[in-house]
Design goal:
alpha/beta, Aspartate Aminotransferase, domain 2, Aspartate Aminotransferase, domain 1, seven-stranded mixed β-sheet, four-stranded antiparallel β-sheet, Glutamate decarboxylase, PyrdxlP-dep_Trfase_major, carboxy-lyase activity, pyridoxal phosphate binding
Length: about 325
Protein backbone atom coordinates (compact mmCIF):
# COMPACT_ATOMS: atom_id res chain seq x y z
CA UNK A 1 0.00 0.00 0.00
CA UNK A 2 2.76 2.45 0.91
CA UNK A 3 5.31 1.20 -1.60
CA UNK A 4 3.66 1.13 -5.00
CA UNK A 5 3.88 4.46 -6.76
CA UNK A 6 2.27 2.88 -9.83
CA UNK A 7 -0.59 1.47 -7.79
CA UNK A 8 -1.35 4.62 -5.82
CA UNK A 9 0.23 7.48 -7.78
CA UNK A 10 -0.02 6.74 -11.53
CA UNK A 11 -0.18 10.46 -12.27
CA UNK A 12 3.27 10.95 -10.72
CA UNK A 13 4.68 8.13 -12.83
CA UNK A 14 3.09 9.48 -16.01
CA UNK A 15 4.87 12.83 -15.62
CA UNK A 16 8.14 11.23 -16.72
CA UNK A 17 7.22 7.89 -18.32
CA UNK A 18 6.24 7.75 -21.98
CA UNK A 19 5.73 4.51 -23.87
CA UNK A 20 8.08 3.85 -26.79
CA UNK A 21 8.68 0.89 -29.07
CA UNK A 22 11.86 -0.02 -27.18
CA UNK A 23 10.94 -2.27 -24.26
CA UNK A 24 11.85 -0.70 -20.94
CA UNK A 25 11.10 -2.01 -17.47
CA UNK A 26 10.01 0.86 -15.23
CA UNK A 27 9.86 0.46 -11.46
CA UNK A 28 9.68 2.72 -8.45
CA UNK A 29 8.20 3.35 -5.05
CA UNK A 30 7.21 6.02 -2.60
CA UNK A 31 10.09 7.21 -0.42
CA UNK A 32 10.55 9.12 2.82
CA UNK A 33 11.79 12.12 0.83
CA UNK A 34 14.39 13.39 -1.61
CA UNK A 35 17.41 12.06 0.28
CA UNK A 36 16.21 8.47 0.05
CA UNK A 37 15.26 9.03 -3.59
CA UNK A 38 18.76 10.25 -4.45
CA UNK A 39 20.27 7.34 -2.53
CA UNK A 40 18.15 4.86 -4.49
CA UNK A 41 18.87 6.49 -7.86
CA UNK A 42 22.63 6.61 -7.37
CA UNK A 43 22.66 3.09 -5.92
CA UNK A 44 20.74 1.87 -8.98
CA UNK A 45 23.46 3.25 -11.26
CA UNK A 46 26.31 1.75 -9.25
CA UNK A 47 24.54 -1.63 -9.03
CA UNK A 48 23.81 -1.59 -12.76
CA UNK A 49 27.51 -1.48 -13.63
CA UNK A 50 28.56 -3.98 -10.97
CA UNK A 51 31.68 -4.35 -8.79
CA UNK A 52 33.94 -5.17 -11.73
CA UNK A 53 33.59 -1.60 -13.07
CA UNK A 54 35.37 1.50 -11.80
CA UNK A 55 32.34 3.75 -11.38
CA UNK A 56 32.59 7.47 -10.63
CA UNK A 57 29.61 9.49 -9.38
CA UNK A 58 29.59 13.06 -10.70
CA UNK A 59 27.54 16.04 -9.52
CA UNK A 60 27.82 19.83 -9.57
CA UNK A 61 28.73 22.29 -6.83
CA UNK A 62 25.05 23.34 -6.75
CA UNK A 63 23.76 19.83 -6.06
CA UNK A 64 21.58 19.29 -2.99
CA UNK A 65 23.51 18.37 0.16
CA UNK A 66 21.85 14.94 0.25
CA UNK A 67 23.87 13.77 -2.77
CA UNK A 68 27.39 14.08 -1.30
CA UNK A 69 26.00 12.86 2.02
CA UNK A 70 24.69 9.56 0.66
CA UNK A 71 27.77 9.08 -1.55
CA UNK A 72 30.20 9.57 1.32
CA UNK A 73 28.39 8.06 4.30
CA UNK A 74 26.25 5.28 2.82
CA UNK A 75 27.43 4.29 -0.64
CA UNK A 76 31.14 5.01 -0.05
CA UNK A 77 31.60 5.64 -3.77
CA UNK A 78 34.24 7.80 -5.50
CA UNK A 79 32.89 11.21 -6.50
CA UNK A 80 33.83 14.26 -8.54
CA UNK A 81 32.37 17.76 -8.33
CA UNK A 82 31.84 19.77 -11.52
CA UNK A 83 31.83 23.59 -11.26
CA UNK A 84 28.63 25.34 -12.24
CA UNK A 85 27.93 28.24 -14.57
CA UNK A 86 27.03 31.59 -12.95
CA UNK A 87 23.31 30.79 -13.23
CA UNK A 88 23.78 27.53 -11.28
CA UNK A 89 23.69 25.01 -14.15
CA UNK A 90 26.37 22.32 -14.33
CA UNK A 91 29.04 23.47 -16.80
CA UNK A 92 29.15 20.98 -19.74
CA UNK A 93 32.71 21.94 -20.72
CA UNK A 94 34.00 21.35 -17.21
CA UNK A 95 32.11 18.04 -17.11
CA UNK A 96 33.96 16.93 -20.24
CA UNK A 97 37.27 17.89 -18.60
CA UNK A 98 36.45 15.93 -15.43
CA UNK A 99 35.51 12.81 -17.40
CA UNK A 100 38.56 13.08 -19.65
CA UNK A 101 40.87 13.13 -16.61
CA UNK A 102 38.96 10.38 -14.83
CA UNK A 103 39.20 8.07 -17.87
CA UNK A 104 42.80 8.73 -18.86
CA UNK A 105 44.41 9.26 -15.46
CA UNK A 106 42.22 7.45 -12.91
CA UNK A 107 40.95 4.69 -15.24
CA UNK A 108 37.26 5.13 -14.48
CA UNK A 109 35.09 3.43 -17.09
CA UNK A 110 31.50 3.93 -15.84
CA UNK A 111 29.67 7.00 -14.55
CA UNK A 112 26.65 7.98 -12.50
CA UNK A 113 25.78 11.54 -13.47
CA UNK A 114 23.52 13.40 -11.03
CA UNK A 115 21.70 16.24 -12.78
CA UNK A 116 19.32 18.63 -11.03
CA UNK A 117 16.03 20.13 -12.14
CA UNK A 118 15.65 23.11 -9.82
CA UNK A 119 18.81 23.53 -7.74
CA UNK A 120 18.23 24.35 -4.10
CA UNK A 121 19.29 27.99 -4.11
CA UNK A 122 19.34 29.37 -7.66
CA UNK A 123 16.62 27.12 -9.06
CA UNK A 124 18.85 26.14 -11.99
CA UNK A 125 17.85 23.39 -14.42
CA UNK A 126 20.78 21.33 -15.67
CA UNK A 127 20.79 20.96 -19.46
CA UNK A 128 20.77 17.17 -19.71
CA UNK A 129 21.09 17.21 -23.51
CA UNK A 130 24.19 19.45 -23.33
CA UNK A 131 25.69 17.29 -20.57
CA UNK A 132 25.10 14.18 -22.69
CA UNK A 133 26.84 15.78 -25.68
CA UNK A 134 29.75 16.79 -23.45
CA UNK A 135 30.21 13.20 -22.23
CA UNK A 136 30.02 11.81 -25.75
CA UNK A 137 32.59 14.37 -26.96
CA UNK A 138 35.26 12.66 -24.83
CA UNK A 139 34.39 9.14 -25.94
CA UNK A 140 31.80 8.08 -23.36
CA UNK A 141 28.93 5.93 -24.62
CA UNK A 142 25.79 7.38 -23.04
CA UNK A 143 23.80 4.14 -23.21
CA UNK A 144 26.53 1.74 -22.14
CA UNK A 145 28.69 3.77 -19.75
CA UNK A 146 26.45 6.33 -18.01
CA UNK A 147 23.51 6.22 -15.62
CA UNK A 148 21.81 9.63 -15.52
CA UNK A 149 19.96 10.28 -12.28
CA UNK A 150 17.88 13.46 -11.94
CA UNK A 151 17.13 15.15 -8.64
CA UNK A 152 13.83 16.87 -9.46
CA UNK A 153 12.79 17.57 -5.88
CA UNK A 154 10.93 20.84 -6.59
CA UNK A 155 10.67 21.47 -10.33
CA UNK A 156 9.78 17.87 -11.13
CA UNK A 157 6.25 18.59 -9.96
CA UNK A 158 5.54 20.85 -12.93
CA UNK A 159 8.39 20.13 -15.37
CA UNK A 160 6.74 17.82 -17.88
CA UNK A 161 3.44 19.69 -17.69
CA UNK A 162 5.05 22.60 -19.56
CA UNK A 163 4.33 22.21 -23.27
CA UNK A 164 5.78 25.44 -24.72
CA UNK A 165 9.28 24.06 -25.32
CA UNK A 166 11.01 25.72 -22.37
CA UNK A 167 11.22 22.50 -20.35
CA UNK A 168 13.57 19.95 -21.88
CA UNK A 169 11.87 16.56 -22.30
CA UNK A 170 13.05 14.07 -19.67
CA UNK A 171 11.75 10.51 -20.01
CA UNK A 172 12.73 7.59 -17.82
CA UNK A 173 14.64 5.06 -19.90
CA UNK A 174 15.44 7.54 -22.66
CA UNK A 175 17.11 10.85 -21.80
CA UNK A 176 17.51 9.81 -18.15
CA UNK A 177 17.63 6.55 -16.18
CA UNK A 178 16.19 7.46 -12.78
CA UNK A 179 14.44 10.39 -11.14
CA UNK A 180 13.71 11.44 -7.57
CA UNK A 181 10.96 13.90 -6.66
CA UNK A 182 9.55 15.18 -3.37
CA UNK A 183 5.87 15.26 -2.51
CA UNK A 184 6.11 18.12 -0.02
CA UNK A 185 7.95 20.72 -2.10
CA UNK A 186 5.80 21.61 -5.11
CA UNK A 187 2.58 19.81 -4.23
CA UNK A 188 2.86 20.70 -0.54
CA UNK A 189 1.71 19.10 2.69
CA UNK A 190 2.93 15.69 3.85
CA UNK A 191 6.65 14.83 3.71
CA UNK A 192 7.54 12.11 1.23
CA UNK A 193 8.78 11.48 -2.28
CA UNK A 194 9.14 9.02 -5.12
CA UNK A 195 11.94 7.27 -7.00
CA UNK A 196 11.34 6.02 -10.55
CA UNK A 197 13.94 3.92 -12.39
CA UNK A 198 14.41 2.21 -15.75
CA UNK A 199 15.73 -1.35 -15.92
CA UNK A 200 16.98 -1.38 -12.31
CA UNK A 201 19.42 -3.99 -11.03
CA UNK A 202 17.89 -6.43 -8.57
CA UNK A 203 18.85 -5.24 -5.08
CA UNK A 204 15.96 -7.00 -3.35
CA UNK A 205 16.41 -8.59 0.07
CA UNK A 206 14.10 -11.33 1.28
CA UNK A 207 12.83 -10.78 4.83
CA UNK A 208 11.37 -14.16 5.89
CA UNK A 209 10.03 -13.15 9.29
CA UNK A 210 8.03 -10.32 7.70
CA UNK A 211 7.04 -12.38 4.68
CA UNK A 212 7.94 -9.84 2.00
CA UNK A 213 10.68 -8.73 -0.38
CA UNK A 214 12.34 -5.44 0.57
CA UNK A 215 13.56 -3.34 -2.38
CA UNK A 216 13.89 -0.06 -0.52
CA UNK A 217 16.65 1.71 1.39
CA UNK A 218 14.21 2.67 4.11
CA UNK A 219 12.29 -0.29 5.49
CA UNK A 220 9.71 1.87 7.29
CA UNK A 221 7.64 4.55 5.60
CA UNK A 222 4.28 6.19 6.05
CA UNK A 223 1.83 4.04 4.10
CA UNK A 224 -0.57 6.96 3.73
CA UNK A 225 1.79 9.10 1.62
CA UNK A 226 0.80 7.43 -1.66
CA UNK A 227 -3.01 7.85 -1.39
CA UNK A 228 -2.62 11.36 0.05
CA UNK A 229 -0.37 12.35 -2.84
CA UNK A 230 -2.78 10.84 -5.35
CA UNK A 231 -5.61 12.87 -3.81
CA UNK A 232 -3.47 16.02 -3.80
CA UNK A 233 -2.75 15.64 -7.51
CA UNK A 234 -6.49 15.64 -8.17
CA UNK A 235 -7.13 18.65 -5.95
CA UNK A 236 -5.85 21.37 -8.32
CA UNK A 237 -4.97 22.05 -11.94
CA UNK A 238 -1.21 21.99 -11.34
CA UNK A 239 -0.32 23.54 -14.69
CA UNK A 240 -2.51 26.52 -13.83
CA UNK A 241 -0.92 26.65 -10.38
CA UNK A 242 2.51 26.79 -12.00
CA UNK A 243 1.45 29.52 -14.42
CA UNK A 244 0.14 31.62 -11.54
CA UNK A 245 3.32 31.12 -9.50
CA UNK A 246 5.50 31.91 -12.49
CA UNK A 247 3.52 35.09 -13.16
CA UNK A 248 4.00 36.21 -9.54
CA UNK A 249 7.71 35.32 -9.71
CA UNK A 250 8.01 37.46 -12.85
CA UNK A 251 6.15 40.27 -11.08
CA UNK A 252 8.65 40.16 -8.20
CA UNK A 253 11.61 39.93 -10.57
CA UNK A 254 10.59 42.96 -12.62
CA UNK A 255 9.68 45.00 -9.53
CA UNK A 256 13.15 44.43 -8.07
CA UNK A 257 14.78 45.35 -11.38
CA UNK A 258 12.69 48.53 -11.58
CA UNK A 259 14.28 49.48 -8.25
CA UNK A 260 17.71 49.02 -9.81
CA UNK A 261 18.34 45.71 -8.01
CA UNK A 262 20.09 42.89 -9.87
CA UNK A 263 17.56 40.05 -9.68
CA UNK A 264 17.44 36.83 -11.69
CA UNK A 265 15.28 33.76 -12.26
CA UNK A 266 16.06 30.51 -14.07
CA UNK A 267 13.40 29.69 -16.65
CA UNK A 268 11.21 27.75 -16.17
CA UNK A 269 11.08 28.10 -12.42
CA UNK A 270 9.66 29.92 -9.43
CA UNK A 271 12.83 30.96 -7.56
CA UNK A 272 13.93 34.62 -7.69
CA UNK A 273 17.52 35.38 -6.60
CA UNK A 274 18.76 38.83 -5.57
CA UNK A 275 21.35 40.55 -3.33
CA UNK A 276 20.76 39.83 0.34
CA UNK A 277 18.66 42.44 2.23
CA UNK A 278 19.29 43.29 5.88
CA UNK A 279 19.47 40.45 8.41
CA UNK A 280 16.35 41.76 10.14
CA UNK A 281 14.41 41.75 6.87
CA UNK A 282 15.59 38.21 6.07
CA UNK A 283 14.47 37.05 9.50
CA UNK A 284 11.08 38.75 9.17
CA UNK A 285 10.32 37.08 5.84
CA UNK A 286 12.30 33.89 6.55
CA UNK A 287 14.43 34.40 3.46
CA UNK A 288 17.05 31.75 2.75
CA UNK A 289 20.43 33.43 2.32
CA UNK A 290 23.72 32.13 0.96
CA UNK A 291 26.69 34.46 1.18
CA UNK A 292 25.68 37.82 -0.27
CA UNK A 293 22.55 36.47 -1.98
CA UNK A 294 19.01 35.62 -0.93
CA UNK A 295 16.07 34.07 -2.71
CA UNK A 296 12.30 33.84 -2.69
CA UNK A 297 10.46 30.66 -3.70
CA UNK A 298 7.17 31.82 -5.17
CA UNK A 299 4.99 28.85 -4.25
CA UNK A 300 1.21 28.44 -4.69
CA UNK A 301 0.42 30.18 -1.39
CA UNK A 302 2.26 33.36 -2.49
CA UNK A 303 -0.32 35.73 -3.96
CA UNK A 304 0.12 38.99 -5.84
CA UNK A 305 -0.88 40.77 -2.63
CA UNK A 306 1.90 39.04 -0.67
CA UNK A 307 4.43 40.07 -3.33
CA UNK A 308 3.18 43.67 -3.01
CA UNK A 309 3.47 43.63 0.78
CA UNK A 310 6.99 42.18 0.52
CA UNK A 311 8.08 44.98 -1.81
CA UNK A 312 6.47 47.70 0.31
CA UNK A 313 8.29 46.55 3.44
CA UNK A 314 11.53 46.22 1.48
CA UNK A 315 11.22 49.85 0.30
CA UNK A 316 10.92 51.07 3.89
CA UNK A 317 13.44 48.74 5.52
CA UNK A 318 16.07 50.74 7.42
CA UNK A 319 14.68 53.94 5.96
CA UNK A 320 15.49 52.90 2.40
CA UNK A 321 19.10 51.95 3.16
CA UNK A 322 18.47 48.26 2.42
CA UNK A 323 17.31 48.97 -1.13
CA UNK A 324 20.24 51.34 -1.66
CA UNK A 325 22.75 48.65 -0.60
CA UNK A 326 21.02 46.03 -2.73
CA UNK A 327 21.10 48.40 -5.71
CA UNK A 328 24.85 48.81 -5.36
CA UNK A 329 25.46 45.06 -5.13
CA UNK A 330 26.07 43.07 -8.31
CA UNK A 331 26.46 39.41 -9.14
CA UNK A 332 27.07 37.45 -12.32
CA UNK A 333 24.36 35.32 -13.88
Amino acid sequence: FGGGVFFACPRVKNLFCRKKKRKIQISGHVTTGGTEGNLEGIRAGISRFGPESKTLTIYSDQTHASVPKVCETQLRTPTAIVPSLPNGQMDPERLAEVIDVSRNVLSHDKYVLVATIGTTFKGANDDVAALTRAMESVGVNRREDVHVHVDAALNGGFWNLIEDGRAQRLRIGHEIDSLSMSSHKWHGGFVGGVIIMANPADTAIEVPYLGFTDRMASGSRDGMVAPKWHARLRQFDWLEEFRRCEANAHLLLEALRERGIAAHRNDPGVIVVFPKPSDAFCDRFQLAAHGDLAHVCVMPHVSEQIVGAFLEELDHDEGGETVRRMREAEFDW
